[in-house]
Design brief:
The chain is mostly helical. Helix content is 78%, strand content 0%. It folds into 2 domains: 108 residues; 149 residues, no CATH class.
Length: 265
């Protein structure tokens, strides 16, 4: 099973390298090979996830390793979906390295399969954790698009270029999706917390930083919708906001242990 996981990781890495080279040299053939490789990595990753789920007898999202793996898998799903809809190489250029980096983080976490914690045995488990994985995935891709937008500006691309406008707009739309899912995460988590710990909100570090992240993305949407911010400023906000996501996801567990830390999520 671990061979399947590390094979997926290596194929994601190869796909990312090929995608960057193909995009930099404008070689469509390399980009096509990168997509095929990424698809192979995704199949290996999916096979590993299903295998682990059957072995554990539950949804494989119950600890930091499993959630990171699910996070990377969700990035791949969204990446393929957006590419299928848009047929734009910048989607894959954003999604591939993000999936590889998050799965690399997972590789450094304990991989043992353990019994699920009592507080996690709830009907809210799949909704809460699954929504978090896809919410974070949306934010990851939007940050990747933000980086891509800033790089293109640095290379002399005009912000009024149709391709740049599409990249900017898609970053905004993907953040809308992530924001909606993060709202589901917070509300479902509050209900679950009341059932598990008899408290809707306890200002646990993970809860607090999830709320901070939600507020920051709310500010992003406010600036976009009310003040009509676009382009460079929104790209920077998308990148900065994703730093908050990463801290909520991994930093809180390392630096600010709380109620969520005992479960490893």
């Amino acid at each position: 099973m671990e061979i399947c996981f590390f094979a997926a990781l290596m194929v994601y890495f190869a796909a990312s390298v090929l995608q960057f080279i193909g995009s930099a040299l404008k070689k469509d053939g390399l980009n096509k090979i990168a997509r095929v490789a990424f698809g192979l990595g995704f199949l290996l990753h999916t096979g590993y996830t299903v295998w682990r789920g059957f072995t554990a007898g539950r949804l494989p999202l119950a600890n930091q390793f499993e959630f990171a793996s699910g996070f990377a898998w969700a990035i791949a799903v969204l990446g393929f979906f957006l590419y299928w809809k848009l047929r734009q190489e910048w989607v894959m250029t954003a999604a591939m390295p993000m999936a590889f980096l998050i799965l690399s983080y997972a590789a450094f976490q304990p991989m043992q399969i353990k019994d699920i914690m009592p507080a996690l045995r709830s009907t809210w488990f799949a909704l809460h954790i699954g929504s978090a994985a896809f919410s974070y995935a949306a934010f990851a891709i939007s940050a990747g698009l933000g980086v891509g937008y800033l790089v293109q500006l640095k290379k002399g691309k005009n912000a009024d270029d149709p391709r740049m406008k599409q990249m900017d707009y898609m970053g905004y739309r993907i953040i809308c999706l992530g924001f909606l899912l993060l709202t589901v995460v917070i509300f479902s988590g509050a209900i679950w917390a009341e059932q598990a710990w008899s408290s809707w909100w306890s200002w646990d570090p993970k809860e607090t930083w999830a709320l901070i992240t939600w507020i920051f993305y709310a500010i992003y949407l406010h600036q976009r919708l009310r003040l009509k911010w676009q382009g460079k400023r929104m790209a920077w906000l998308a990148v900065i906001a994703f730093v908050l996501v990463i801290f909520t996801f991994a930093g809180v567990n390392l630096l600010l242990p709380g109620l969520h830390s005992y479960a490893g999520i």
